[in-house]
Amino acid sequence: MEQSNHAGRLASIVGDANVLTTVEDKAPYLVEWRDLYQGSTPMVLRPGSTEEVSKILKYAYENGLTIVPQGGNTGLVGGQIPTENGGEIVLSLGRMNKVRNIDPVGFTITVESGVVLETLQNEAEKADRLFPLSLGAQGSCQIGGNISTNAGGTAVLAYGNTRDLVLGLEVVLPNGDIWNGLRTLRKDNTGYDLKQLFIGGEGTLGIITAASLKLFPKPKKLEASFVGLPDPHAALKLFSLAKQKAGPVLTGFEIMPRVGVEFCLSHLDGARDPLEAPHNWYVLMELSSGSDAFPVRDLLEEILGEAFEDGLVEDAVLSENLSQVNAFWHIRHGMSEVQKAEGGSIKHDVSVPVAAIADFLDKAISAVSEFVPGCRPVPFGHLGDGNIHFNVSQPVGADKEAYLKNWDAMNEIVHGIVHDFGGSISAEHGIGRLKRDLLKTVKSDTELDLMHRIKDAFDPKGLLNPGRVL
Amino acid sequence: MEQSNHAGRLASIVGDANVLTTVEDKAPYLVEWRDLYQGSTPMVLRPGSTEEVSKILKYAYENGLTIVPQGGNTGLVGGQIPTENGGEIVLSLGRMNKVRNIDPVGFTITVESGVVLETLQNEAEKADRLFPLSLGAQGSCQIGGNISTNAGGTAVLAYGNTRDLVLGLEVVLPNGDIWNGLRTLRKDNTGYDLKQLFIGGEGTLGIITAASLKLFPKPKKLEASFVGLPDPHAALKLFSLAKQKAGPVLTGFEIMPRVGVEFCLSHLDGARDPLEAPHNWYVLMELSSGSDAFPVRDLLEEILGEAFEDGLVEDAVLSENLSQVNAFWHIRHGMSEVQKAEGGSIKHDVSVPVAAIADFLDKAISAVSEFVPGCRPVPFGHLGDGNIHFNVSQPVGADKEAYLKNWDAMNEIVHGIVHDFGGSISAEHGIGRLKRDLLKTVKSDTELDLMHRIKDAFDPKGLLNPGRVL
């Protein structure tokens, strides 16, 4: 059947206005912000309900059409962008943006997958609750995409990854069947935990249409400190000290190098250097408590006092109010985008066991510096989770295209070091299309075989986000 | 091939001493403590290493032998007991009891699956760390079984179910292949999260041989209170108040009825009534913090003070020392076993959304009391998780066998009410053989079909723990 006929049939499901076929209408769905992928598609479908998603997938299943689900289009590994060959239909979840239920007593919220993360945070806040997932793209990413990629972010230390926040899912399967797994139970041991496969499944096993999520008491007290340190070894020791003393009250521990802070000072609106003199490394440490009774400020001062005595810390500033806390986080959250202004950047999203993070940074920094003399490593991120965005900016004045030709070779060097430490080549961004070939090099045949068996069991025709992950 | 020949071949893998074939040697592996199941087996195999487990499963796969994995044999749904037909070989993990590694800085421990839970708790403690999983059977249950059944227990409120404590697994697959997924990473988004299927998989998809687990800061301050209340509605309000004020510092919230406390006073060594007068209902509330800085005692007093003012609480005693905390928990942990001494008991391990727990208890108590006049409901457990062990003891002086004939009919009544509240018929004990038929009545065809597809993909010959779960 011709594409135009498919479009007509699909329009009868979602309505004419929700089948986008012109170049202009489709454009925003076909590129992502790093410009790594540019896709092509016969149409973008924008269903408004679970039933419509079900009917679309049933039609696609019967007619052998491939479908690429897309949320807020903020993914970093190309999973949400159709291929260039023009055969993949984009299914955008953005219109499914209702909050279905919120239960403050049971600390749960049930939302459709197109709800923007920031909206979800705000809905929780209105009910005097916290939805803790927090990341740079929160103003546009959607919760369905967050779940499909098991998003990480800056609150993982205390609250876990997105996976840990999900109580139940509603999913449309590749054949159009709806699985209603929307439970709000804290405990449920009735058979295999199917939702776990869709979480982090990157849309290859089913399309998440709604989710029941955990809420938490809203932090009553929140304090942060911006700390200057000599090196990552001092940062790791500071982390151990803080974790030991604060336990779950330690809700953020992010590391940044001087060069990253300088990039922010040059290119990020409203960024100011929190400390007077420059330091080689920085840590943004946040403590917060859902209880009024906790002396958060005293504890933060105690941790820093001890760290000064131990020679771990060179200088530190404590937040005086919430807007200063936000100013610290502004720098941290801006650290990704400012790299664009400094030319080419070769990216790695890696993790190692927390105890190995300083040794990993030593080795990786020295290896890439040897490989491309003059390159500027900007490794930053979630030290408390062992997760570093090991990004490497081009040497000043170098040719961007020429520099980026080192991408695969530099990846190989860094991932080799990650491997030696028993780490992961994709800590929080997923596999998508970007790391699909890499996956084969880091997983055993046994593990890849199990993944293929699952994919075949769920999507025997291979129509849902094909070529992503596997 | 004759069983004796199989025994010989398998003995060449594990050694003669580790193939048990006499009636006396096999006996402890063939009954469980509730006496609900009595099994038969040609032999019990006791491998000492992952390689031996791998060779056994490979041999079983080639020869079509069915295998029932068994840990500490404390499961409550018959999953670990071979059937009566005598065809299933028991594979006991008890000899695989090594701690492979402990990393206090990274807060992780890697152990073999035969390590007894209490041993694991002690190993963590020696390193000044907490492994929080805690349940009545901890002196004999093994961590491999805990993981395979996604055990719950009394620390779920603050630390989650066993699922939430697992970072990585080593699993022997039904064909004998070893999957090494023993990672200690806090973040890893490289494809489907396979370990989630083995967690709570009840040994039907593979045999867990080792696990990497999360550790936590050891509680520096621990306080508990034994509270007398009029009814579960007051208990739910107390829970909301405590959760709001204490957040993650609220580490235990257990409900018990008067009759259960009376059973303990009659049948449990060393049990004393913590309160002077009797109350219809009790709550054991525990607060603890990994930080010295937290005024845990003050907060507990503040919560109880407010609860008194609101008329939620009739009386309360606060622990004066750790042995008093333990005395409170002694009653709670003893509540399951003491029911044996009071004749027949019909069991339900159910959960509902936390906010619905008081309404559920009202309805279920009145329904079973109408069904069997004079029966004694002893619903107790993890109110903070929405999880109640809804056990119903026989009327005083009734005939035990005759009473137990009501099992299925009473289950149907209680599970119907659970269903109306969107709850689960197996909150933490799993499905095993006991609830296999029930599963078909509470899951959609879509969900059951997905589970079967997974089982077929992992264990196409159906040799591993057949007839459990599905």
Automatic annotation (TrEMBL), chains A, B:
Cofactor: FAD
Pfam families with a match to the protein in the record: FAD-oxidase_C (PF02913), FAD_binding_4 (PF01565)
Molecular functions (GO terms): catalytic activity; FAD binding
Keywords: FAD, Flavoprotein
SUPFAM superfamilies in the record: FAD-binding/transporter-associated domain-like (SSF56176), FAD-linked oxidases, C-terminal domain (SSF55103)
Protein family: Belongs to the FAD-binding oxidoreductase/transferase type 4 family.
Record-given protein name: 4-phosphoerythronate dehydrogenase (FAD-dependent)
UniProt organism field: Roseibium hamelinense
